[in-house]
Amino acid sequence: MDSIWPPLPLEEWKETYATLHRYTQIAGKVALALTPLENHFWNVAFHLTPRGLATRTIPYQGRTFDMEFDFLDHNFVIRVSDGARRGLALVPRAVADFYREVMAILGSLGIDVAINDHPVELLSEVIPFHADRMHAAYDPDAAQRCFRVLAESAVVLEEFRARFIGKCSPVHFFWGSFDLAVSRFSGRRAEVRANDSITRESYSHELVSAGFWPGDTRYPEPAYYCYAVPAPDGFAEAEVLPAAASWNTELGEFLLPYEAVRRSRTPRELLLAFLQTTYQAAADRAGWDRDALERHAPEPETRSPEAPLPI
User: Fold this and answer.
1) Taking residues 71-95, what's their average pLDDT?
2) Which of 1, 99, 206, 307 has its Cα between 20 and 30 A from that of 119?
């Protein structure tokens, strides 16, 4: 079981997690600086590859490039459409040095970009990247296990996403909060009162969002989550599956401990039950038009085994 859904106790890799979180924000902020804004900041989210986490293709003065955290060979790789390729080994390295090296590599490739070098969405130790020598850990085994959890989780999230035919995000990774997410939308605008433009853009429309998160001091273990914006009346009191799932008042969302999924005989089914029942609890209470938004399973059809599959 460990080979498919590996253990990822937060306490054992929290230093690597803190460092890697900041590494990903450096790459993410480059994407933020060079790509046009898409709804809900989908342009800056990473996608999963067979080897790790990568930016989308980024345009730059007649060329394109991307950046990938390769957790199999433990390299940060920059690939350019003219064939250029540069790598930086993922090893114990201070955030300040990683930041300096990445910006130098980009400069050597003729990519001139400036970013806000202050990390975001952190609970403490908000040190500018250029000055951060506190965070310098990298355990390759822990980083690879995290990637494997993300990869296995993404398969199930993609299956859940495919059940929905309304507006829905990709299954993607947000480097600000360091979580894998998929969001379904009702199609209606949301009344979100917030002083910052990021929150207003992210939650401009009604949504139910679910995904995986490694945890932090507020909830010190990895978990799957589901929240709704705006949260409908009675959502927190809803009965959801499985029994290990519960409402977390501090975070304002349902949480399912990763360990409950990992140790289950049927982790896919357990996770799908959580995703489906939390979504239904929010959508029903908010009055979503579920008949119009969801894909219903087709009736079984009878045909010859030799007949071509319908396209």
Assistant:
1) 98
2) 206
C-beta of residue 234 within 8 angstroms of C-beta of residue 266:
no
Tracing tokens 């342009």 back to the chain, one arrives at: 43
Continuous segment of H or E residues that includes residue 152: helix 140-161
Coil, helix or strand for 105?
Answer: helix
* Paired residues of 66 in beta bridges: 79
DSSP for 194-227, written as a single string: -SSHHHHHHTSEEEEEEEEE--BTTB-S-EEEEE
Q: pLDDT at position 164, please?
A: 98
> Which residues neighbour 309 within 8 Å (Cβ) at sequence distance 6 or greater?
none
Q: Give the pLDDT confidence score for residue 49 in this predicted structure.
A: 98
Contacts 24+ apart (CB under 8 A), 206-209: 206/230, 206/286, 206/288, 207/183, 208/183, 208/184, 208/278, 208/279, 208/282, 208/283, 209/181, 209/182, 209/183, 209/184
* Cβ neighbours, 10 Å, residue 305: 4
Q: Are 181 and 221 in contact (CB under 8 A)?
A: no
DSSP 61-127: TTEEEEEEEETTTTEEEEEETTS-EEEEE-SS--HHHHHHHHHHHHHHTT-------S--S-SS---
What's the mean pLDDT in 79-83?
98
Residue type at 298 in one-letter notation = P
The C-alpha atoms of residue 281 and residue 236 are separated, in whole angstroms, by 9
Please report how the helices 140-161 and 267-286 are oriented relative to each other, as an axis angle in degrees rounded to 10: 50
Mean pLDDT along residues 195-219? 90
- Return the SS3 of 108: helix
69-80 pLDDT, tens digit each: 999 999 999 999
Nearest of 180, 158, 141 to residue 53 by alpha carbon: 180
Phi and psi at residue 216, to the nearest 5°? -155, -165
Mean pLDDT for the chain overall: 93
